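Q: Got a minute? One more chain.
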Amino acid sequence: MTRVAAIDCGTNTIRLLVADVTRDAADGPLRLHPLHRSSTIVRLGQGVDRTGRLDTGALERTLEVVDEYAATCAALEVLLDADHARFVATSATRDAENRDEFVGGVHEALGILPEVVTGQEEACLSFAGSLLGPGTAGPAGPRLVVDLGGGSTEFVLGVDSPQAACSLNTGSVRITERYLADGVNSEAERAARSEVRALLDRAADAVDLGAATRLVGLAGTITTVTAHALGLDGFEREAIDGAELAMEKVLASCDAIVHSTAAERESWGYLLPGRRDVIAAGALVWSEVVARVGADTAAAGHPLTTVMTSLSDILDGIALSIVQRRERA
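A: Always. Here it is, folded:
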């Protein structure tokens, strides 16, 4: 048994997973036994799309949480070294010219260097994590896993491992800052949808969206849409994880969220305050993805009619990768 700490730092949220990793047999699959999960909205990517730099306030907010995570790891007796811990930074840090400030701050707090991974590696880690969740025993054929973040969205097609993957520079924070910072109106919505559709054309060149036999969505925007579609009062992990919903129901919830009022968003117990201002953009992106996959699979002769949500994602993939890298060494 190995106790590990995985940290995923994205554009909007930073998260920590402490888990014990085991194998049932020498050649058996790795299994995660979570001990602690934390998630904090810090908006590290605030303004990065416009300035190309990490904002000073965003850096301070994020590093404060990193200090908290260091204390949590110490309390749970996780060794903070390369054999037991991994800190992965994604879209916002990739795009920032002053990323070294962040890397240095994390190293000082944790004693390990954060890894600024490529979009391709981010996609593969997300896929690996998703294999621990629901949907692995579904229809024969490849699953399309979509990880919709604040600054980027990853698409991965595969069965037991990625067959094709790509990362797009679109997400809830990026689309909000580009088009919806002053709210949703018809002109801004048209412009946002036009950009997302153009990017999906690029994704389809790299990943055969029509080959998917199941669509699995990951991350905060998608869990929020799922909670809305299920009519939940708050975040209910057991109800959301593995939920399989009709595409029409998902698209209806996306539309309701895109055009929701501030009062409605405040009333949704599953929507954290730090996500309220970007959820319309996230739902817009997800609606375009769902509609495109539905159309492409229909054109391929096997239309998908449902969407699955998984709470096993890149964070779980990072935790697995710690042990996998050590075994390969």
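A: The mean pLDDT is 95.
Q: Perfect, thanks.
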